[in-house]
Design goal:
This protein is α+β, with helices and mostly antiparallel strands. The protein has a domain at 7-77. The protein is built from three helices and three strands. The chain has helices at residues 30-36, 52-65, 68-75, and strands at residues 7-10, 21-25, 28-29. The chain has a three-stranded antiparallel sheet with strand order 1-2-3.
Length: 106
C-alpha cells in the first residue's frame, strides 16, 4: 500500500489454498472502503467466515453502491467491468485488429 504499514486479518483459505484476508490500515478496513466506493464487490461465499458485524457492514456497503453505477453512467459513460461477473466462463478479450510485427534480432 505504497509505504504504509498494513495488517492482514486472514480467515479461511479459498479452494486454491490462497489466504482470504481483510486489509487493515490504521485499524480501518481498506476492503470495506473499496466496496463503499464501488471499486470492489464482496464475495458472499466467504462471508460465513466473517463476524456478524463485518458481514453486515459489507452487505450495507454493497447496498449503498447499488444504483450509483447507473447514476455515474449518465454523467460519464465509461465501460466498466464488475470483477464479480468474471468467472471461468468469461469470454477471452478480443485481439487487436492488427497483429504486432515481430522484431528480428539480426
Amino acid at each position: 500500500m505504497f509505504s504504509h504499514d498494513v495488517e492482514l486479518d486472514c480467515g479461511v483459505p479459498d479452494r486454491y489454498g490462497r489466504e482470504v484476508c481483510v486489509v487493515l490500515r490504521g485499524g480501518q478496513d481498506v476492503n470495506l472502503k473499496q466496496v463503499r466506493a464501488g471499486l470492489a464487490g464482496r464475495y458472499r461465499q466467504y462471508s460465513k467466515a466473517q463476524s456478524v458485524e463485518r458481514r453486515e457492514s459489507y452487505a450495507a456497503a454493497e447496498r449503498e453502491t447499488q444504483g450509483r453505477e447507473e447514476w455515474l453512467n449518465t454523467i460519464v459513460p465509461i465501460a466498466t467491468i464488475n470483477p464479480l461477473a468474471l468467472n471461468r466462463d468469461a469470454q477471452p478479450r478480443q485481439r487487436a485488429s492488427r497483429t504486432r510485427r515481430s522484431r528480428s534480432l539480426d
